[in-house]
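Sample 3 of the quickstart, ligand zinc ion:
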Amino acid sequence: MIAGFPDSALAMNAFVIDAFEFCRLKQQAQGEIPVAELGRLAQETVDRSGTIHWALSGDIDKLGHAQLSLAVSGAVNLICQRCLTALNFEIDSKSLLVLAKDEAQADTIEELLDDDEIDVIVGSAAFDVNYLIEDDALLALPVAPKHDVCPDGSVAAEAKGAERASPFEVLKKLKQ
Ligand SMILES: [Zn+2]
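Result:
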C-alpha cells in the first residue's frame, strides 16, 4: 500500500502523474534516479552511491482495472550484517500493480484477483512515481544482507559458533 505521499517540499525530485489517465492512455515512462536522492533507500547503503533505472508502463487489465507495470534495477552497496562492510547488491525487480480508487476498493480487487503476484495499490490523480520506485527498490532488498564469504573470513568464525555483534552493538561501541 502506498500510504500518503511525501510532502512536496521534501520530495525534490517528485515525478507526479495522474495514475489512472496514465493507464487509460497506455502511457510509458522511464528514467534514472541517483540513489542519493532516494532518502529511504540511501539509508540502507554504505555510501549512497549508484543509480536506479526504472521503466513504467500503463495498461488496462482484462477486467477493466488500471494497471501499472514497473521495472526497477540498479546496483547498490548494502551493509553486510556480519562484517559491516559494503556488499554489492543488484536490484532487479518487476512488479504488476493494479490501481484502486480507495482502500475499500483495493480490498475488493485483491479478493477478486486472488493473485499474490499482483499488488493492488491506491492510485490517485497526483501519484508520486518516485515514491513508488523507491518502495519497489526497498522491497527488493534482502532483509539481512550478508556476504557469502566475508572479506574478514567471518564465515569460519560463525561456523565455530562464535557470536557476532549486532550492528547496533557495534554502533554503541563506536559512540563510547
Ligand atoms: Zn560480510
